[in-house]
Design a protein that fits this description.
Length: 368
């Protein structure tokens, strides 16, 4: 409002001065940009897309108008039209676990190198939330949905995965299972797994070669695919070295530190005789170390110890942990690569198994 000099007041907008906020009440549109730059809407669209030749002068005017109006491209609309690449979605059970965090790092690295946005979502083991996230990613036109985390591969699981795969495929997306069992033939999904059996076979064989015959095996929860595969590798190594299997030395449990600590304390309290421990994960191994130290036992002087994963802190433990290295970052990178390059992928490359590697450090010594 301004004073007109005779005591009355008038609205400044009536004389052509625009009141602040009248156009900023709504987001700027591409038509606003075109009007300010003095070009057509089609020219603005071509300039922003960068796939059509425009003069330097025109481009400068358009970009100046974009900056002046704070115009933001409607990325969702462009995704629907196929003008921009869809994101890569990673759906995992727990983002705090070091192994899954490294899978996420691999996914992000590969997606970034291809100009894709990566999204990370956590289910906390809730299948209903996984259902919702997969549907949401389908609606968001994700180029790939990568599922990571141990599962019980029963009939219900296979039905859910088949539904995911078919729904995503119909939307032009791709389901990728990392560290999960393969689906039946004909299901449009990619599987990137790692050699759990081979890694466990190497670990147990290393202990057996060092003279250990009473190995306490602290595997995962029964029924989960990775747990069962590691147990199979352990059992195969025992048979290969003609060492009898003892059920009391096979103690399943959760893949965490507290479980490792509790299981070793229970074994010691029960007077169980063992000279070595094969921990199903490095997290379990940390709990084992704590329980043995609390009992006055030293590794590897009194008990040898081997883990599985080779997470970053494994080399910094005292003693440094002999373990099985899983290429977690490579799993993530391979998942994205196979999903985005599937049109060029040869038959059979939609199921890849990466190798594991025994890393020998200080926690195992020969049994006298």
């Amino acid at each position: 409002m301004t004073d007109n000099g005779n005591g009355t007041r008038r609205n400044s907008t009536a004389s052509g001065t625009k009141r602040k906020g009248t156009r900023s009440d709504r987001p700027s549109t591409i038509r606003d940009v075109a009007g300010k730059a003095g070009v057509s809407v089609a020219t603005v669209s071509r300039t922003l897309a960068g796939n059509y030749p425009v003069s330097a002068e025109t481009r400068a005017r358009v970009m100046a108008a974009v900056q002046s109006l704070h115009y933001v491209v409607n990325v969702h609309a462009k995704a629907l039209s196929g003008a921009v690449a869809g994101p890569v979605a990673l759906v995992i059970q727990d983002i705090t676990g070091p192994s899954l965090a490294h899978v996420a790092a691999g996914v992000e690295q590969e997606a970034t190198s291809r100009g894709r946005l990566s999204l990370v979502c956590s289910t906390h083991g809730d299948t209903a939330r996984e259902d919702d996230l997969v549907q949401l990613m389908r609606e968001q036109h994700a180029a790939a949905v990568v599922l990571v985390g141990g599962v019980v591969p029963d009939d219900a699981y296979h039905r859910r995965m088949a539904e995911y795969a078919k729904a995503l495929d119909a939307a032009g997306s791709r389901l990728v299972l990392v560290g999960r069992p393969a689906l039946p033939a004909g299901i449009p999904a990619t599987v990137v797994d790692y050699d759990n059996r081979g890694g466990a076979f190497q670990a147990t064989s290393h202990l057996l070669a060092a003279g250990h015959r009473r190995i306490l095996f602290l595997g995962g929860e029964p029924g989960f695919s990775s747990s069962e595969q590691r147990r199979e590798g352990h059992m195969t190594a025992l048979r290969a070295h003609t060492v009898p299997y003892e059920e009391k030395l096979d103690v399943p449990g959760s893949y965490n530190r507290a479980s490792g600590y509790r299981r070793v304390r229970d074994a010691l309290d029960a007077g169980l005789d063992f000279t070595a421990v094969f921990a199903g994960t490095d997290a379990i191994a940390v709990g084992v170390l704590a329980a043995l130290r609390e009992a006055g036992l030293k590794v590897p002087r009194d008990v040898s110890l081997i883990g599985f994963d080779d997470v970053p802190y494994a080399a910094d433990l005292t003693p440094s942990l002999t373990t099985v290295r899983v290429p977690y970052e490579e799993l993530g990178r391979t998942a994205v690569r196979l999903a985005l390059d599937r049109e060029e992928t040869i038959a059979g490359d939609d199921h890849v198994v990466l190798s594991t590697q025994l890393v020998i450090r200080e926690s195992v010594r020969p049994q006298k």
